[in-house]
Amino acid sequence: MGSVARDRILDGSALRPGQAVLGLGSDGLHTNGYSLARNILFDKMKLKPSSKLPGLGITAAAELLKVHVSYGPLVQRLLKKFNRGARRSWAVKGLVHITGGGFMDNIPRVLPGGCNAVIMRGTWDVLPIYELLQARGKVSDAEMHQVFNMGIGMVVIVREDQSAGVLRSIRAQKMKAWEIGFIDSGNRRVQLVGI
Length: 195
What we know:
Elements: E1 20-25, H1 34-44, H2 60-64, H3 72-82, E2 92-97, H4 102-106, E3 114-120, H5 128-137, H6 141-147, E4 152-158, H7 163-172, E5 177-186, E6 190-193
Parallel strand pairs: 3-6
Antiparallel strand pairs: 1-4, 1-5, 2-4, 3-5
């Protein structure tokens, strides 16, 4: 594996209010929230790994063992296409993998001082597994976004004037993607709109 040249690193310092937040679709839990998911499915709902999940048409084991999407090849293509030339002209300004800690802990890691990320619920397809877990586990919206990826496995922060082109490029690679928010003034927090 090679290293990244220092002048090519996306460290969050180029994030500014007005930039668009794009979300790349996940295909399930990925590597997050398994303790809570298992508690709900196996302790509260009394399911077995071979039990069909209500309304999902898949067993609990099949849902929990889904293979994690690899965003690496797509990210490399985006950077090659949209981040050529001078740094100030780059379209892709930041990348965030939504892992343990969900939106609330991961996005602030790239936000510079003076910036918040506003995430607008309802702008992407929440996976049915999350709706089931929330309803059957009586989990609050805030905790769901703290623990799970909610159907967004990676966030790409882009120049607002480039968001449509970046979205087209992502979707052309057969990846689900949505514009899910924007960067605003603030103090390195995530604001969930619609909760």
